[in-house]
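About this split. The held-out portion is used to measure sequence recovery: a designer receives only the structure tokens and must propose an amino acid at every position. Recovery is the fraction of positions where the proposal matches the reference. Here is one held-out target exactly as it appears in the evaluation file.
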């Protein structure tokens, strides 16, 4: 990695690093990205590398070391999941570039990508370094301006990486500008530390605690020059040592600002450039836009020969009867539930797909808003019949008290409990919940049990039955997938 004195080289034990993880901290300009680049270049031929790059600085690794660059802006959520699964299967070193996304989109994409890496099949648990630059963005200590949903998803994925990733071969290497901004349960799981220059007292105190130094010794962290770090951990040194990071072969696309000469033109010329009269004439109005054909117009034009597409005149046909309209909606929802990739898409994306499918089924106005669509989709995923009897009124009232994403798993259990069938397996609950993680399913069931909605009974053979006391419904006992 560098030197700690004349002729004293400092090395990282990569196998030990895979087992113990690394935390890098330093203010902007302290050399964190340079350190990460040195680590990635030195271990490029030794271990698979996955880089979460919010600024697009590490894409240059592709030219020298053959990393595959994934521009997140160009891919959908389903494609990100598919790419992450193939990355683990084929052991490809990649850089996930997030620089063209907004902060909340970066958090959502990183959460989806890391969760897919974490949920890979056991046969693909090969060792890999997962480097996350600017980790405080993805594991914030406090809520910020992003939505709670994005923050929880990103924080959960980072926590899984640092707390439980080792058994799956994933070794987290995270870098942050400020320890105070990084969630403590994420930072606490690292056993190796590289502490660079920092100025705030709270960050110096936390860095000193992690390095096992006394508070009065923390002042030296403020005096560290750029590119010099205090290192400690089983993969580098058993005692804190000062390391000057060595040179690198590649460079970031954006470097530190450098001084450059100012323009030497006379002041009157510069004034002329600034105050020159401009063309104050208003811009010409844009040409009128042609009417946009509807989906029905496009389908009609495809089905017959005709070179010109023109918008259709308003139809004078009577509105579709309510019964026929509901039948079309139910059929469309069933088709969406049969799509294996639809389970893991965002509700807003599914709602757009639902509208297109309805128009293709000759129902241009389905009459559902996003909230009503999510309820109807949850009912379809749970396999509820199209015509619900009065016995379901109480069940739907309980479902109305739950968050929208929990409605489908609840209705799936309620449907089995009403008929006395076996409790749904963990994998089936995960599918309707929209996750690959059975751990999230177990936490979901525990939450509903805490709320008094479910009562779980497990017999001596390990079989589980779920009772819904407010309804008096109970499933038959069966082994959950985790027990199998």
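Reference sequence for scoring:
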């Amino acid at each position: 990695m560098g030197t700690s004195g004349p002729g004293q080289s400092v090395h990282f034990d990569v196998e030990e690093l895979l087992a113990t993880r690394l935390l890098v901290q330093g203010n902007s300009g302290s050399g964190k990205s340079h350190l990460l680049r040195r680590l990635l270049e030195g271990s490029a031929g030794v271990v698979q590398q996955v880089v979460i790059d919010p600024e697009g600085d590490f894409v240059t690794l592709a030219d020298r070391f053959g990393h595959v660059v994934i521009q997140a802006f160009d891919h959908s959520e389903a494609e990100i999941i598919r790419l992450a699964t193939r990355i683990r299967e084929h052991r490809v070193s990649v850089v996930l570039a997030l620089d063209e996304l907004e902060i909340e989109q970066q958090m959502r994409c990183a959460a989806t990508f890391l969760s897919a890496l974490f949920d890979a099949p056991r046969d693909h648990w090969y060792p890999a370094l997962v480097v996350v630059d600017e980790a405080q963005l993805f594991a914030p200590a406090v809520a910020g301006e992003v939505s709670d949903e994005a923050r929880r998803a990103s924080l959960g994925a980072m926590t899984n990486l640092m707390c439980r990733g080792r058994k799956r071969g994933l070794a987290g290497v995270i870098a942050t500008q400020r320890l105070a901004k990084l969630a403590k349960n994420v930072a606490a799981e690292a056993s190796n530390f590289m502490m660079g220059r920092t100025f705030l007292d709270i960050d110096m105190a936390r860095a000193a605690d992690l390095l096992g130094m006394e508070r009065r010794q923390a002042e030296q962290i403020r005096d560290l020059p750029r590119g010099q770090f205090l290192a400690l951990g089983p993969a580098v040194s058993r005692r804190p040592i000062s390391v000057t990071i060595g040179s690198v072969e590649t460079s970031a696309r954006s470097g530190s600002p450098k001084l450059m000469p100012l323009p030497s033109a006379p002041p009157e010329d510069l004034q002329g450039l600034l105050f020159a009269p401009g063309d104050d004439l208003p811009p010409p109005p844009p040409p009128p836009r042609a009417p946009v054909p509807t989906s029905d117009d496009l389908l009609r034009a495809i089905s017959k020969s005709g070179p010109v597409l023109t918008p259709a005149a308003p139809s004078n046909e009577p509105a579709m009867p309510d019964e026929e309209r509901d039948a079309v909606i139910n059929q469309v929802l069933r088709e969406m539930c049969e799509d294996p990739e639809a389970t893991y898409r965002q509700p807003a994306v599914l709602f757009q797909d639902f509208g297109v499918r309805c128009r293709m089924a000759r129902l241009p106005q389905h009459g559902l808003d996003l909230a009503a669509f999510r309820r109807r989709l949850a009912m379809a995923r749970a396999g509820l019949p199209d015509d619900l009897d009065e016995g379901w009124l109480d069940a739907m009232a309980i479902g109305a008290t739950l968050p929208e994403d929990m409605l489908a798993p609840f209705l799936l259990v309620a449907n089995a409990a009403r008929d006395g069938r076996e409790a749904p397996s963990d994998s089936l609950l995960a599918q309707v919940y929209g996750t690959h993680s059975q751990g999230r399913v177990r936490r979901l069931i525990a939450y509903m049990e805490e709320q008094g909605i479910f009562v779980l009974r497990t017999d001596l053979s390990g079989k589980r039955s779920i009772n819904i006391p407010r309804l008096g419904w109970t499933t038959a006992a069966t082994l959950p997938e985790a027990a199998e």
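Annotator remark: The chain is about 40% helix and 15% strand.
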